[in-house]
Amino acid sequence: LHAHGVVHRDLKLENFLYESEDASSQLKLIDFGFAKVWDPSTLMMASCGSIAYVSPDVLCGKGYTNKCDLWSVGVIVWMLLSGYPPFHGDEKLMMSKIKAGQADWSHKSRWKPVSDSAIDFLKKLLCKDPERRMNAQDALRHPWLANRGSSGNPAVLSRDALRSLQRYADASKVRRAVLQLLAQELSPEETKELREMFLAIDKTNEGTICLRDMKDAIRSSGSRSPANQRKRPNEVHVNTNSKLLQVPGMPANTADPSSPCGSVSSAGSPITPARTLRRAPSGVLDELFCMLDANGDERLYYSDFLAAMMQARSRLREEAVRATFHRLDADRSGTISVQDFRAVLGETFEGADVEELVKEVDPVRCGEISFEAFVRVLEDHDAVPTSPARTPARMPSNSNCDKRIGFFPGEAH
Q1: Helices 67-82 and 116-125 meet at what angle, rounded to 10?
Q2: Where is this region: Disordered (predicted)?
Q3: Do both 115 and 51 map to the same domain?
Q4: Taking the CA atoms of the chain, what radius of gyration do you get in angstroms?
């Protein structure tokens, strides 16, 4: 959240829910009613949050930063480790203790089984002085968290995943914007594998992927299990003429155009785009990462990664596609206008004015995008979608959730 400039301002145990009752279910943070997009050059002044979790700097009324969330995280971790709150009593007494930073360490039996590293983590979060309190990056790098679940084994990207990353890097801004919105319509079950892949690549456990982690994952993807090496006839293939895959000393594409695998090496094994990318010089991978790094902060975020992985899906649920279209159709007119894009995405997307995004898919300059044009944004080729050119303002109540839209020629619709 903080990497995106968002401060929650009401972190507490009650605002964390599991996706499902499954034992491996993921936690979700909810209730963004007090959340704020914060400018680091300013201080926030509004006194908000839940008293048991609120930080001293919020109570003092002199202004505070996003480190108010880190104090709240400290309270949450304290309660999970000990089973009781660090500050208690009536509201007046509790506020006095919070302002003084007087946490209740008196229950020594509760802290006996807790490691010194965990206690150090707590003390650096429940620090009265926000200047000395850890920020989010410091907390993630703390030994108590940094060493959790680290296997040391390199993450492995599948062939489809490598292709998807390259295709997303080459995609137009309007396509990337639509894919990001479409990814948000996927169910937890549909994103589980991708989420696990992202977490495996993120070796620093910071919630983002840095260039080094991405390079390690790409380089480690050369060894695949026999099951993954079997040819899949319906596999989606990328544009092998992409400049990102043109390695010096290697022809861009010397294969028979009808061959789904690209070029063939002298040894007879196919030189696929994924294989070429794995063997590409460091500079080529730097360029790929730069094109994926929309914010220019040398980090790849989960939302970008999820959108990129959508490129590997040759068929998508019509429900998700229509839901994304209707989300962009803010005025429910049945088409998407520049004003609709602004209402959902803001004035710009990845540095480009949203008006330019509309022009990319509006060749007749009518200022609106029909459902047919919207589906074409998701196509790799100019296949005609099966859906009508214009959709009703509201989705039909009897829509079939399992119906899928095919985006590639030769697929049964």
Answers
A1: 140
A2: 218-237, 246-275
A3: yes
A4: 25
129 shares its domain with 201: no
DSSP state, residue 38:
-
Please say whether the beta carbons of 350 and 176 come within 8 A: yes
* Per-residue pLDDT at 213 exceeds 90: no
How many domains, in total, are found in the chain? 3
Q: Using CA atoms in the order 68, 74, 80, 83, what is the torsion angle rounded to 10 degrees?
A: -100
Catalytic option among 10, 160, 202, 329: 10
- Give pLDDT, residue 239: 38
Q: Distance between CA atoms of 142 and 41, rounded to whole angstroms?
A: 26
With beta carbons less than 8 A apart as the criterion, state whether 171 and 180 touch: no
Q: Give the best-scoring range by mean pLDDT among 155-164, 259-268, 327-336.
A: 327-336
The residues, ordered by sequence, that sit 6+ positions from 27 with a Cβ below 8 Å of its Cβ are 16, 17, 18, 19
Residues 65 and 45: their CA atoms lie apart, in Å, by 9
Per-residue tokens: 181:
């919105």
Is 10 annotated as catalytic?
A: yes
Sign of CA dihedral 389, 393, 399, 401: positive
| HSE value, Cβ hemisphere, 13 Å, CA-based, for 175 | 16
